[in-house]
C-alpha cells in the first residue's frame, strides 16, 4: 500500500519535473523558481533512495539537462558533460565527505577546491592545435547544440590558446551574463515590449541559443573556465594545477576559486562567499566543491547524472512562486501612485514576503498581470521584492486583469500620466494621502527627525485632524496628545520636546524635510550655501538656480514651481507664525551649532587651513581648546594625527574627522 502510494507520487513528480526541465533547458522560460524545482527534485530523490526498485532510466534523477534544440547542429561530446548533486547546508557537506571516505575505504581526509557556482550555462570548447574549432552546449550531457559561431562572439573566450602545441583540448566552463548586462538587456526588452529573462541563466542560454550569431554578439556575455573533459591528458595532478594551467593558456579563471585543506574550511568558505556574493558583478547561485586530487577523482568516478567527487552547495533561494491576492494603489508624498501586489505569504531565501512592488502601469501591462495570478517573485540583495513575471499557464480563465484606477484612490481627483513618463500621479495639491506622506517625511529621519513623532503617531494625529498640514505640528498642545489612545504623559512630553527642538533647524534640513521633488540633502545643502536664507529662496528664479554649481535642471524647475505656489507661500508664513526659524550658515544667531562645544584640531587638514577651521568654530559659537584639557569636548583629526588622538580617546572625548566636522557645520550631523 505504502509503496503504491509512493509510486504514484513518484510518477507525478517525474512528470512535473520533466515538464519543468523542458521549460527550463529547452525553452529558457521556467514556470517555477529554482528553489521550488530543487524541492521537488529532493522529494523525488528521497523516495527513490527509499525504494531503489522504483528508479527508472527516464527519471530526472538519472538524466542531465534537456534535449538539444533541433534548429542547431548536434554535437556529440567525446566524454559526457554531467550535472552536479546538490547540498543545501553544512550537514549535507559533512555527509558528502562521509560518502567519499566510505567509497574510498579510508579515514584519511583530503583537500577540496571551492569554486563560485556561476548561474549561467555550461559549454564545451574544443581547441585543436590551439585554435577554437567547436563550441557546444551541454544539452542532455551526451549530445549538445553546436553554437560555435555564437561562442566566437563572446570576448572572454580566446579564439587561440597561448600554447599552440597542444593537439587537442576540450575545456568546459560557464557562459554567463553579469548583473549590469542582464539589467540593460531586460530594460531593452521592456522597452521593446518583449518578455524579460527570469534570471541570468535563462538570459545567457537564450542569448547563446540564437540562430543568428549577430544577436548573440550584441548580448553582454562572459565566460569562466572550470575544467576539461579529460584532466589526465594535461599532465596536471589536481584541480588547482589545472586551473593555473588553463589560465596560462589565456582562458579566464574565476579569481575567487579557493583551495580548502578540509571540509571545515569548505564550510567556512561557503559562509564567506554567501556574504561576498551580493557585491559581485555577477550572480552566483552557490559554490561547487571538488575533490582536488585527480587520482582520487578517477577512483571516485561518476553516477548516472553527476560525478561522485563534486557537489554544488546552493545558497537559499531568492526566487519563489506565489499568488497575487489583490493590488493596492498607494499615493506617495509627491502624488506618485504606486501599485503594490498583496501576495500569499511565501518564504524567499529565509524571509517571508507578502507584498511586492509593481512599479507602475507600464510594468503591469507588460507583465500582463491578473488578480489571482501565480507569479514568480524575487528578492535581490535587500531591495523590496519584485514580480519577475506572471505564469499565464496557471491562470484561471475568469481572472480579471489588474487595472490602474483612473482617479486617485484617496481623494478621487483624476490621475495624470504625463506623456513619456512612467509614473501616474495625483496632482491635487490638497490630496490628503500626499499630505499625510509629506508630514510623515517631514518628521522622519530624512526630515527634521522629530523624536516621538514616528510614522504611526503621525498617521494617528492626521486621522484625528490634529495635524492637517506641516505647520500644525508646531501647534500641538499637551492636552491634544495626553489621553489619546496609546499616548501617556511621558510620550506626549517627549513628542512636544521633539517638536520644540525642531523649531530652529538648519536651512538644509528644513528644505530637505519639505520634500520638494528632486531636492534631497545634497541639493538642499547647495541651496543653503548659495542663498543663505529661506526668504531669498522664495523669490529665486530658474536662471539663478541654474548657475548654482551641481544643481540640475529638473531640481531648478521643481524648486521654482514649488515656491511660486501660493499655498506654499501661505504655509511658509504659517511656519513663521508658529515660530519655525530655519537657520542658514552665516546668520545662525541664536542657535549656534557649536555652542557649548570646545574643539581642538590635530593632524593635517585637507580642506581647511587651521586658521579657517578655528574661525569656523568661533563663528558657530564654539571655543578652541589649547590642548587635551578637561574642558575639551571634541577632537577633530586630520591626516597623521599623532599622540593627541590617543590621549583624547583615553579620556573618552568625542572624535570627528575633518569631513564629519564640516557635516556638523552643515547641520547634517550632530556632535
Ligand atoms: N526552475 C525550473 O523549472 C528548473 C528546471 C530545471 C532545472 N532547474 C535548475 O537547474 C538546476 C539543475 O541544473 P543543472 O543540471 O545544470 O545543475 P546545476 O546547475 O545544479 O549544477 C551543474 C552545473 O553547474 C555549473 N557550474 C557553475 N560553476 C561551476 C564550476 N565552478 N564547476 C563546475 N560546474 C559549474 C555547470 O554549468 C554545471 O553544468 C536545478 O537545481 C535547478 O536549480 C530549474
Ligand atoms: Zn489624491
From TrEMBL:
- Reactions this protein catalyses: NAD(+) + (deoxyribonucleotide)n-3'-hydroxyl + 5'-phospho-(deoxyribonucleotide)m = (deoxyribonucleotide)n+m + AMP + beta-nicotinamide D-nucleotide
Q: What keyword terms does UniProt attach to this protein?
A: DNA damage, DNA repair, DNA replication, Ligase, Magnesium, Manganese, Metal-binding, NAD, Zinc
Q: SMART domains from the entry? A: BRCT (SM00292), HhH1 (SM00278), LIGANc (SM00532)
Top EC class per UniProt? Answer: ligase
Enzyme Commission designation = 6.5.1.2
Q: Where is the BRCT domain?
A: 589-671
Which Pfam family is an annotated match for this chain, by its short name? DNA_ligase_ZBD
CDD domains in UniProt: BRCT_DNA_ligase_like, LIGANc
UniProt-annotated catalytic positions: 117 (n6-amp-lysine intermediate)
One Gene Ontology biological process: DNA replication
Task: Enumerate the residues binding NAD(+).
Answer: 34-38, 83-84, 115, 138, 174, 290, 314
GO molecular-function terms, A-Z = DNA binding; DNA ligase (NAD+) activity; metal ion binding
Q: Which GO terms describe its cellular component?
A: cytosol
Q: Does the keyword Membrane apply?
A: no
| Keyword Magnesium recorded | yes
Cofactor(s) listed: Mg(2+); Mn(2+)
The protein's matches in InterPro entries, at most eight in alphabetical order, are given as: BRCT_dom, BRCT_dom_sf, DisA/LigA_HHH, DNA_ligase, DNA_ligase_AS, DNA_ligase_CS, DNAligase_adenylation, DNAligase_N
Query: Where does the chain bind Zn(2+)?
Result: 408, 411, 426, 431
Instruction: Give a short account of what the protein does.
Output: DNA ligase that catalyzes the formation of phosphodiester linkages between 5'-phosphoryl and 3'-hydroxyl groups in double-stranded DNA using NAD as a coenzyme and as the energy source for the reaction. It is essential for DNA replication and repair of damaged DNA.
The record's listing under PANTHER family reads: CHROMOSOME TRANSMISSION FIDELITY FACTOR 18, DNA LIGASE
Q: Which family does it belong to?
A: Belongs to the NAD-dependent DNA ligase family. LigA subfamily.
Q: Write down what this protein is called.
A: DNA ligase
| The species this protein was found in | Desulfocapsa sulfexigens (strain DSM 10523 / SB164P1)
